[in-house]
Specification:
- The chain is α+β, with helices and mostly antiparallel strands and about 475 residues long.
- The chain has 15 helices and 17 strands.
- An eight-stranded mixed beta sheet has the order 7-8-11-1-12-13-14-15.
- It is elongated.
- The structure holds zinc ion.
- The site of zinc ion has 8 residues, from loops.
- Zinc ion binds next to loops.
Length: about 475
């Protein structure tokens, strides 16, 4: 039987997080607004109005193009993409066609085996969004709030070979968009939208077969599921001797099924021509250099550097670079601590990450600053507090915003290393527990752990456990 391999390309629409829309001053984000309250004659395409380009849209798109290793064109043009649809009041969408802001590029995906898969980028351009149509109670409702919201459309080559790789691409793209601070990249809110082109071919072949396009998938899990479903369908069709037709399919999230929307249009149907109401984008070196002046180190580079500079395991480096503010936090804490970076990593991977997730904050918003974390770990190192006290201290610092040493001081959380105090507690425990003492003396030496536990309880966790053990052994053996 023939083995088939999937061939997948993704088309993504990324909503840029600008204050205003791409060609007018209406607010860009309408997530919490009532329908048709965030509109003006420009984004509704009234006759006689003129669009004015929002510079920030170009700047954010340039950051993305640079991160995708694309060639940025010094001169690019807007074009009209003509089609008729109720949620497109102008009857055309302002987009970019043959001379878009950037061309080519790639995104590297780290694979589970440690190798990188390079996914090519075929198209990267800016455009305006259309409105939203929804069907409710037998009526078709149109909301124009989304008209004119800035988008970057980005299309990959047919380079992805599995539903998991497609999901990985979206995970990495989302990470990058948030890292650059150019999009909220929330798929549920439509900030990051994805259509998938799927075909199959005999494994090892290098030709492309007819593809189908899956639309309206609004989570990464749904993209994975929809692609898997479509690959299975195509395999079954081809095995049964049928031809794959170039359909547009819609993913029904509730029924976990694909349904046919329409046979696909071709590019020619859109009758593209240059947008006469807008000047070309002239991105001279001065402007480009200003935009790219603070271009950050990207997640994968930073991940490698953390492994190299701080000898972190790949697992730690991956988690600590999952988000930019978290990785900044780690690095600042390591510098403040000046000890073993793995210790800072351990505290972050456990206590700090849990706190961030519980409170829905970013690392940069914590009152427990990197400097405070470094101080807290040093208090453990010096034996001033034990690990369990340090864990409660994490919460106390975050709640109060006070520095760890001051809290230890005022709340008396420091370890008691005074021998006579520990010795007194040990003597009390032995006197209060004659049965266990007898059992220990009769040879049940494993009871020593239980005795240490009792001493710790008596001293409310503040005893130096090792010292308590030594004193107990001495007393019980005498
Ligand atoms: Zn407007």
């Amino acid at each position: 039987m023939t083995e088939y391999e999937p061939v997948i390309g993704l088309e993504t629409h990324i909503q840029l997080n600008t204050q205003s829309k791409i060609f007018c001053t209406c607010k860009a984000d309408s997530w919490e607004e009532a329908a048709n309250t965030n509109i003006c004659p420009v984004c509704c395409g009234f006759p006689g109005v003129l669009p004015v380009l929002n510079r920030v849209v170009v700047e954010k798109a340039v950051l993305l193009a640079r991160a995708m290793n694309s060639q940025i064109r010094p001169l690019s043009y807007f074009d009209r993409k003509n089609y008729f649809y109720p949620d497109l009041p102008k009857g055309y969408q302002i987009s970019q066609f043959d001379q878009s802001l950037a061309s080519g590029g790639y995104l590297d995906l780290p694979m589970p085996g440690g190798e990188l898969r390079r996914i090519s980028i075929h198209k990267l351009h800016i455009e305006e969004d259309a409105g939203k149509t929804k069907n409710e109670g037998g009526k078709r409702m149109i909301d124009y709030n989304r008209c004119g919201v800035p988008l970057v459309e980005m299309v990959t080559g047919p380079d992805l070979r599995s539903a998991d790789e497609a999901a990985q691409y979206l995970i990495r793209l989302r990470q990058l968009l948030r890292w650059l601070g150019i999009s909220e990249a929330d798929m549920e809110k439509g900030h990051l939208r994805c259509d998938a082109n799927v075909s199959i071919r005999p494994a090892g072949a290098d030709h492309l077969n007819t593809k189908t396009e899956i639309k309206n998938v609004n989570s990464i899990d749904a993209v994975r599921e929809a692609i898997l479903t479509e690959i299975d369908r195509q395999k079954a069709e081809v095995t049964a001797g049928h031809r794959i037709e170039s359909w547009t399919l819609e993913w029904d999230e509730n029924r976990k099924k694909l349904k046919k929307m329409r046979s696909k249009e071709t590019e020619a149907d859109y009758r593209y021509f240059r947008e006469p109401d807008l000047l070309p984008i002239r991105l001279d070196d001065a402007w480009k250099n200003t935009i790219l002046a603070d271009f950050p180190e990207l997640p994968l580079e930073r991940r490698s550097r953390f492994m190299l500079d701080y000898s972190l395991p790949a697992y730690d480096a991956e988690i600590l670079t999952s988000e930019r503010s978290l990785s900044d936090y780690f690095e600042t804490a390591v510098k403040a601590y000046q000890g073993d970076p793995k210790k800072i990593s351990n505290w972050m991977m456990n206590d700090i990450l849990r706190m961030i997730n519980d409170r829905g904050m970013t690392a940069g918003e914590l009152k427990l600053t990197p400097a405070f974390l470094a101080e807290l770990v040093r208090l453990v190192d010096s034996g001033s507090i034990n690990t369990s006290t340090a864990k409660t201290l994490v919460e106390k610092v975050e709640t109060s915003g006070r520095n760890p040493a001051a809290i230890v001081e005022t709340e008396g959380l420091g370890l008691v290393s005074d021998d006579s105090a520990i010795r007194a507690a040990c003597e009390e425990v032995i006197a209060e527990n004659p049965n266990e003492t007898a059992a220990y003396k009769a040879g049940k030496s494993t009871l020593i752990g239980w005795f240490v536990g009792q001493v710790m309880r008596k001293m409310r966790g503040k005893a130096d456990a090792q010292k308590a053990g030594t004193i107990l052994t001495e007393l019980l053996d005498s």
